[in-house]
Structures are given as structure tokens and as C-alpha cells.
Amino acid sequence: MPKFDVSKRDLEGLVGKEFSVEEWEDLFLYAKCELDDMWEENGEIYFKADSKDTNRPDLWSAEGIARQIRFALGFQKGLPKYEVEKSDVVVYVDEKLKGIRPYGVYAIVEGLNIDEEALKQMINLQEKVALTFGRRRREVAIGIFDFDKVKPPVYYRAAEKTEKFVPLGYDEEMTLEEILEKHEKGKEYGHLIKDKPFYPLLVDSEGKVLSMPPIINSEITGRVTTETKNVFVDITGWELNKVMLALNVVVTALAERGGKIRSVKVIYPDFEIETPDLTPKEFEVELDYIRKLAGLDLSDEEIKDLLERMMYEVELKDGRAKLRYPAFRDDIMHARDVLEDVLIAYGYNKIEPEEPKLAVQGRGDKFVEFEDAVRELMVGFGLQEVMTFNLTNREAQYNRMNLEFGKDYFKNPPAELVEIENPISPKWSALRNWLTPSLLDFLSQNTHEEYPQKLFEVGKATLIDESRETKTVSESKLAVALAHPRVTFTEAKEILDSVMRHLGFEYELEEVEHPSFIPGRAGRIIVNGETIGIIGEIHPEVLEKWGIEMPVAVFETFLAPLYKEPYL
């Protein structure tokens, strides 16, 4: 979670009121932060804020925390207003950047009065947004420049690796290639563009380099000081909506310092946009839903007041709240997200716990008991149980399995994958939709162990289901993998036969062509006319991609179609 330092004096100047240190411990909670540490330096008190929400980059600076507290305390209510005045500045985006780093969005903020604390927060916000929200600059990289040293129009273009400029912190020119090899930021982030045919470069009309996204700014324009009054903000990345959100976060933070926001026209080869776009976003929620889940007897007006203190514009109509909320937020995806804001404004510490008044006797879920019975059965067959992660990635679920993403392979795996919008790591960027890749991953990490290796897992696969509120469903599955020099389809089928016999089901096998399996040695498992799984010998190309040198036979099946009582 992002941690950053803020000055008590600076925070109170932005909020407009002084507080005791003890009061600040509670105030940080309004901004979804905790006071992690406190110290005194040169007669000034500093706090270390520990943010508890990776989806709220607008709260990762003194400006964002102060704004949230100002509204939560009722000093302001409703939607924060930011005026955006059009400028005549244009940025042209090079078509050659499409496969390199395709999107750039920009803004100008004028009339700033930057002191040392404001400068620290500006740098901090750049770093935290790029590091956490931007996935170490892969998705979002930020540059802030002294606008008075920039001569528009500006060009975001693909540059030859031999082009030169003076990088920030240096006093001599270096080629773009040298920067990646010698500059500390080039060494740290060079892998993001090193294999590209061209490198991104942001230059003005005089050919002056502003930056080499996402690596380093130039020394000439990229050094912002307390003397800087007007800044040019540059955000680059791979997804337009992400870079737009990051731009909104940065410019509104600067506006909290008294800056005036001016927009920039960005011209792409096939479209053009005006940035930033601070148009409020909209959402709608049922008031009874808020009351029910909050467990609080709140009137409509009380809910409205709490939401207005969390920066919503609220219109009550027919038992619903029509909401407009700031463009620097992108975390409102469900009514529960609105509920959380209501409870933050109300105060979690004010909620009185109540003992449940239900006279019931608990027992285990019957389907969970069935899953446990299947586990006992598999252990009885001499198989070793493994428990692997539900989180995985598209590479493991499709590419390493010789599969084409988006194509339905008889439900193993289905055509779609539930992917995480802001994954912490590319390795954990999706929820698996079948278990076999997880077992192969396990085998690949245990090639030094003795064979035969006979594994099974009873685990969850997450599938897309548009009929459900969450648009997803977690299905229980059984997967078995057998690895040794003489393993065959027949050995896997013998275990499948025994499973079906013990569970009291008859099944059929129908030969199929499936890229993950050797042709002629794969079949779909059919129960009551429905395909519930697949069995076969893993294709040598798949084994090679996983680094497995032994033959592997597997089967995988959904468990829900095999559930009935008694289980065994």
C-alpha cells in the first residue's frame, strides 16, 4: 500500500483549520489512510500516511487527503468544482508509437505558488501514482515540466535510438540508448521500451526534448522548482482511460494549490481529444440497499448528507439516489462502493455492534462436504492433493496450453477470462477458468522430484455469467494429473472410471481435437448428455512450454453435475 510523508502545517493550511495530533489520527481515516508514524524536523511535525486503498490515487498526497477531510467535516459539500479553460496548445501523437507506448494526455496548470512542501507533494504524487497505479510506469508514467520553457506545439513521437538530450540530473547529452544503459532510471525502467524499434520522445516546436517516457525528463524543461509558476503535465501509457484518470488526479491536486487548469488538444492519427476531461461520473443506488447493508436506520436526507460529505452530488428520487462524483475517482463499480463512503462519513467507530438474535444450529455446507468426500476418494486412489492459487494469467491459461484466447474449447477453458483491471503483478492478473494449467505449473516446479507424480486438486474456476449480479460464478472442479515415463490415456481413464462408479454416475467419452492434447488421445466427458470435462494426454509442445520432460495425462471435470446424496 502507498506510504508517503506529509507536513502537519501543510495539511492544515490546505484544510483551513488546525488540529491536535490525536485528532489527526482519526481524521486520516476519512481519507482511507492510517497515521503510520510521526516525527519532528526543524520545528515542524511530519506524518507518515499509510493509504489502505490502491484504487484511490487521488488520496495519495497532502492535497487529496486535505480535500477529503474538508468535505467529510462539512466545510464543503457536494461535488468539488474545477474550471478548465481551453488553451491553444496542441500535442501531436506519432502513429509509430502504437506498438511502443501509444497514448499521451496533457494539461497546463498556471498560477502556482510552489513552496518546498508543495514541491515535495508534487514529486511524491508523481512517484506513487506511477509506481502503484501505473504498475512501475508500465501502465502510467508522469512528467511535469516548467511550461515557460516549452514552445508549443508539442510532439509525442517515435525517435531513433541515436538521438540525444541532457537527462535530468546530468550536464551532458546522452543518446537514448546510452540513457537506458547508464542512467539510473534507464537501468530501472529501460526494460519497458528496450526491445522496441523506436523510443518515445516528447519534444517542443524548437526540437527541445521534454522527456523520454517512461524513463526520464530532460534537465532543461523537466526540473520544476519553487520558482516555477506554470507547469505542463504529461501522462503516457497503454490505456487511454488509465492515463486520463491519472491526469485528472494530478491536475486537480495542483488546483488545490490554487492553480488554474487549462486544457490541451491532443491529435492522434485517427482521432483527437481535449484533455483533461473533468466531466463528473454518474451512478445510481437504492437507498434501502444502503440502509439494509449498513444496518443503520438512516433517513433519505441523512444518507444524502453523508454522501455530499464524500464529494457526491445527490438527487433523491423514488427511493433512489442519483449520484454524480468526481472525475478523479474510478472506484465506484457497485452499490457497495457507495455504501463504504456512507459508512466512512458516518464513522465506523460510531456503529454499535449488535448480537444476532437467531436461534439456529450451524452445520457444514452440504456441497463442501461433498467436495471433502471427493478429496478422500482421490487420496484413496493413491493421489497427492495440491492446492494452487486461483490467481493466474492469460499466458498460463491459454498461450502455454497451445490455446487461442477468445475461443471456446468445450468449456475447457471457456472463451472468456476474468481479468483484473489493476493487477499487482502480471503473473497474478486473472482468475483461472480451468485447473489443468495450475497442475502443470506445479509439475514444472517439481521436475527434480521422484516420479511417478500423481496429483489432484479440488478447486475453483471462475467463469463469466452475465445473469449474476457480480457477472461471474465460481465453479468447483476436480482435476487430476499423472506424470511418469509410461503414463497413458488409459491410466487416467481408469481413475475417471473409478470416480464415476463411486459417485454413482455413468458417463460417455467422445473423441475431440483439442490443442492442449495429443491428437487422437483426448475426449470430452459427457454425463446426462452434457459435456462436463475433458481427458487426454498433454501435447508435447505444451509440456515443452512448461519445461516438463515427462509425459502427462490429465482429466478435469465440473463437480456440480456429479453432486447427489448420498455422495459415495
UniProtKB/TrEMBL annotation:
Cofactor annotation: Mg(2+)
EC number: 6.1.1.20
Quaternary data: Tetramer of two alpha and two beta subunits.
Protein name, entry field: Phenylalanine--tRNA ligase beta subunit
Gene3D superfamilies assigned to the protein according to its UniProt record, in alphabetical order: 3.30.56.10, Bira Bifunctional Protein, Domain 2 (3.30.930.10), Phenylalanyl-trna Synthetase, Chain B, domain 3 (3.50.40.10)
Biological process, per Gene Ontology: phenylalanyl-tRNA aminoacylation
Keywords from the UniProt entry: Aminoacyl-tRNA synthetase, ATP-binding, Cytoplasm, Ligase, Magnesium, Metal-binding, Nucleotide-binding, Protein biosynthesis
InterPro entries noted in UniProt: aa-tRNA-synth_II/BPL/LPL (IPR045864), B3/B4_tRNA-bd (IPR005146), DNA-bd_dom_put_sf (IPR009061), Phe-tRNA-ligase_IIc_bsu (IPR045060), Phe-tRNA-synth_IIc_bsu_arc_euk (IPR004531), Phe-tRNA_synthase-like_B3/B4 (IPR020825), Phe_tRNA_ligase_beta2_arc (IPR022918), PheRS_beta_core (IPR041616)
Catalytic activity, as annotated: tRNA(Phe) + L-phenylalanine + ATP = L-phenylalanyl-tRNA(Phe) + AMP + diphosphate + H(+)
Origin species: Thermococcus profundus
Family assignment from sequence similarity: Belongs to the phenylalanyl-tRNA synthetase beta subunit family. Type 2 subfamily.
